[in-house]
Amino acid sequence: MGNDLNAEIQALLDPILESMGLSLWDLEFKKEGPRWLLRVYIERYAGGVTLNDCETVSRDLGTALDVENIINHAYVLEVSSPGLDRTLSKPEHYQRCIGSMVKIKTYQAIEGQKVLVGTLKGLEGDAVLLETKDGKIITLSRTNIAKASLEVVI
User: Fold this and answer.
1) Distance separating alpha carbons of residues 116 and 131, to the nearest angstrom
2) Domains (ranges, CATH) in the chain?
3) How confident is the model over 46-66, as a mean pLDDT?
C-alpha cells in the first residue's frame, strides 16, 4: 500500500482536478485506528477551494475508485483544502511558498531553538533557507525538519 497505489489514485484524480481548475496539494492513504483513510488535499490558486469543490471531487473520485477497483478493502475518503496553515512536506510545497511566513519545528535544536519562524527564502537541494525576523538566513536540512507549515499572519 505504498507509492504505487498513491500513483494510481493520483492518476484517477488529476483529470478530475484539472477539469475543475484545481490542483493536488497532498494525498495520504493510511490506517488510522481500525479503518483506512484516504485523505486528499486540493487547492485553487485564485479564489480558494469551496465546499462544493470538495463534494464534487469526493463524488467523482469515489466513483472512479469504485469503477477501477484499485483499493480492495473498506476505506473512508476525505477531501478538503490544506488550510491557511498548510503543512509543507514536499519540495514543491516549499517552492510554491517561497516568500511566505513559515513555522518550522526541528528534531535537533538550531542555535538553541527547535521552533523557528521566518520568511521562506528558498530551497537548495535538500536545504531550506529561512530568513528570521532579524534578517539572518538559516539553512536547515529537510531531514532535520519535524514539521513545517505556513504561519497565518493576521
Assistant:
1) 10
2) 3-80 (3.30.300.70), 91-150 (2.30.30.180)
3) 92
